[in-house]
From TrEMBL, chains A, B:
Highest taxon listed in the record's lineage: Bacteria
Protein name: Sugar kinase
Family affiliation: Belongs to the ROK (NagC/XylR) family.
Stored InterPro entries: ATPase_NBD, ROK, WH-like_DNA-bd_sf, WH_DNA-bd_sf
Keywords: Kinase, Transferase
Length: 409, 409
């Protein structure tokens, strides 16, 4: 068909085919490995259309044949033809930037962490210094990448408020950043021109836990991230709650104790001043220098002091406001709350039960992240992979191969 | 075509046609009057398909021809053919149940209130007594209905937590209702069997303000309802935020002043104890017997006392938690907050600015409801009309004509 004739119905059909190809890839990505029969059912397309799409994904180097889905060989029947993510297929770089350390990973489809590196970052460093440190970690994680694999994009998680429209970091209070274009800084440090997506850490934690963590199949969930600051990522009705500018979920600044500690936001007694890392550290008399290892310190305790139990109560009482406001089915406790919750789950649940209304309380469950400490990291991978699910052909068209050589040059 | 042959493609085409018919009706409903040319653009269908759908709506008695949309006769050009809601077309009954009074209206497509009635209700009455009072109001508003008009359903707004799955009123604290099936009670009192939808008043206020009030075209808005209790209805990304059970938006119980007044929920110092009707009444020394007319009392003031200004500050400070949590573009202040805001807008805005984070603060606007005191009432009409937009043919098939005679019988 000549280019001139690819218009009208032809273009529509091509758009639908690419859309179907992306949707099929999203299913393979979610499941890791899946049978053609399952794809036929999930997508409502006939077997020959599915076969054609699967063949195209294979020829693009994205997927490969699998004899049978994992766990499907239980009976004596013939194994059904399956699809799985290809070895050496396209990948993304995921960056989880914390207040005191950066974690960078090369992540493939299916959420596989293929290589990872991390380094401390100084919270009083300039954004360009942090960008240079992140760029060095990126160079490290692509060291062993095969030349045939191509980089689709970079996803970055930051502990701050990110403007949805352009990814500008409006405020990362504990890094003391205001209006920082961190994505551009990282690209400049790498000398690459490639799609970069950036979002709030709690929003990405929620996304990843919903996609492949504790919240798979749960349409209303909240990921509460307890680090130096406290924030929430909200999935409502199966979709990310972003708000008008992308800033929804700043629950760390819920009014909690009007006579309480001063907060960096200028107010007193915000919830994060009562349950954030500094409050936890104070409760266990952890020296300031060790706040960055607060989870390890907490993991060393086998019982909670009265002060730590009070922190647990405050955590539960604040969660009650979240449960009353959002009526989630699941609240995932991330960051330092993972270690804290193991010690004071009784107090957290009591604080929640004490202050939540009975109707939203009865249907909510508190849980630890299914992805451990990697929720935000894998959420960053998800937003970087997203273009592949919209149009795999177009996304691969702009992806970079031989990244290692380009970075060396 | 014989019934046997209405399968496969035929049934699909029929489903698509009915879907298109409902979508076209939704556009006419939203605009009140609209030209065929606009419908062609909005729906992406060709002129003859639109003409066919418009003809079908006319033959169903739902719409009628209009020579030109209002305001379109500015130039000397030929008036374009238009569509408007038919006189004597289908209608719904909308019920806005408050703690102290019920308002009932007969509402047509386009959100037209065709007839209304209201009566006080006793907050210590049993649910069946309130149901009987509402049924009497319903009988009153259908008195003049033409026999050819048919009743599609009943929509009810209640000041409480409503379970989404079945409309059970789990809790209406200020009516002292627990697990009341109020929709069923009203139908029993009427002796009718007809679809009844029931939802929280603030959720319905948000829906109506989004559809035809202050928030038309605003995808992220919050309607905060200030009555005896305080609650919020949230539109996020263009859709109602319902939560897992339908209870999202219970912001009246945000922790505000841990040493404050006792709240009916069992806690102390919830936000609604500082800004709800009783707090406002106390600030203006309004006797308890007149709390039901609090808006009229407030409208009689031309300046605010220091106590009322403090209530305004508390309103703004609590709104800051809502703005930080949901990042709305618009906050609509309903219920008694309408009258309060006129007196203390400076304090409300200062309280908000004092405690909201700069990024979500800079894009939010506070507004009064575009629908005055009728937001929840018209939201109740919207949920009752909804089946008409899903499938007008099916909804009219189950609608009741000659309602007046049925109710008399």
């Amino acid at each position: 068909m000549s280019p001139q004739r690819r218009s009208g119905l032809g273009t529509n059909q091509e758009a639908i085919r690419r859309h179907n190809l992306g949707t099929l890839l999203r299913h393979v990505h979610g499941a890791g490995q899946i049978s053609r029969a399952e794809l036929t059912t999930l997508m409502g397309l006939n077997r020959s259309t599915i076969a054609g799409l699967v063949g195209e994904l294979e020829s693009l180097g994205i997927s490969e044949r699998a004899t049978a889905p994992e766990g499907a060989r239980q009976g004596a029947g013939r194994p059904s033809a399956g699809v799985r993510i290809a070895q050496d297929g396209p990948y993304v770089i995921a960056v989880d930037l914390g207040v005191d350390r950066a974690v960078v990973a090369r992540v493939g489809l299916g959420g596989q962490v293929l290589q990872r590196a991390q380094a401390p970052v100084s919270s009083d460093g300039e954004a360009w210094q942090v960008g240079a440190a992140v760029a060095a970690l990126i160079r490290a994680v692509v060291e062993d990448v095969p030349g045939s694999s191509s980089l689709v994009g970079i996803g970055i998680s930051v502990p701050g408020l990110v403007r949805r429209s352009d990814g500008l970091v409006r405020l990362a209070p504990n890094l003391e950043w205001h209006d920082v274009s961190f994505g551009g800084i990282v690209l400049a440090a790498l000398g690459l021109d490639i799609p970069v997506s950036i979002a709030n850490d709690a929003d990405l934690g929620a996304l990843a836990e919903h996609t492949r963590g504790a919240g798979v199949g749960v349409d209303d969930l909240i990921y509460v991230s307890g680090n130096v600051g406290v924030g929430a990522g909200v999935i409502a009705g199966g979709h990310r709650l972003e708000g008008a500018g992308g800033y929804a979920g700043e629950v760390g600044h819920l009014r909690f104790n009007p006579d309480g500690r001063p907060c960096h936001c200028g107010n007193q007694g915000c919830w994060e001043t009562e349950v954030g890392a500094h409050a936890i550290a104070e409760a266990i008399q952890c020296p300031a220098a060790k706040v960055a290892q607060l989870d390890e310190v907490l993991d060393g305790f086998d019982q909670a002091s009265p002060e730590l139990r009070a922190t647990g109560t405050a955590l539960g009482q604040g969660l009650a406001s979240i449960v009353n406001s959002f009526n989630p089915q699941l609240v995932v406790l991330g960051g330092y709350f993972r270690s804290l919750y193991r010690l004071v789950s009784t107090e957290v649940n009591a604080g929640l039960a004490d202050r939540a209304l009975p109707a939203p309380l009865e249907s909510v469950t508190l849980a630890l992240p299914g992805l451990g400490a990697d929720s935000a990291l894998l959420g960053a991978a998800e937003i970087a992979l997203e273009p592949l699910f919209v149009d795999p052909v177009a996304a691969l068209g702009t992806a970079l191969d031989d990244v290692q050589a380009r970075l060396a040059g």
